[in-house]
Amino acid sequence: MKLKELFFVLAVVTAAGCAADEEAWSPWCDFRGYCRLKLAVQVESKPSGAEVYLDHDFKGTTPCTVLLEAAPIIIGQKQIIVSPVGGSDRYFIRNSRYQGETPYTLWVMKDGYEPLSHTLIMEQIFPAEALLHDKLYEKSVTVTFELEERNLPPPSSAEAD
């Protein structure tokens, strides 16, 4: 008799499934898609008043803000955890990475000073392991250029005969 009772209890538990307050886990699935990245770059220089260029396009004079955008392809795996009624779904991400890079080069120039540049790679600023595709991510950074005076040759003096 005890074997029949045990079998009945197992059958009821199996048929009932998870309790209402438990989360339902989905299997890991591959994803590939675009995420949208927006970066506000506050460009400063010492001394201020330098012209700012983004890949040869004039953007303003320091201090100024340059907005960068990218939509790189991101691939990886995600698992959805469906919360009970009224809760919100959560995601676990693994093996997430970008395909390729999106570099932007900022240049600053000021009369009497050496021109300087700095390259920002969007994918290094936004770590892929924390991102989902089809989402917008935004950040702000400050880039400060320490300008160095240009070493000009001394003016030549006219030789007297």
UniProtKB/TrEMBL annotation:
The record's annotation in InterPro entries points to: PEGA
Where does the record place the PEGA domain? 41-70
What Pfam families would the database entry show?
PEGA (PF08308)
Name-wise, this protein is: PEGA domain protein
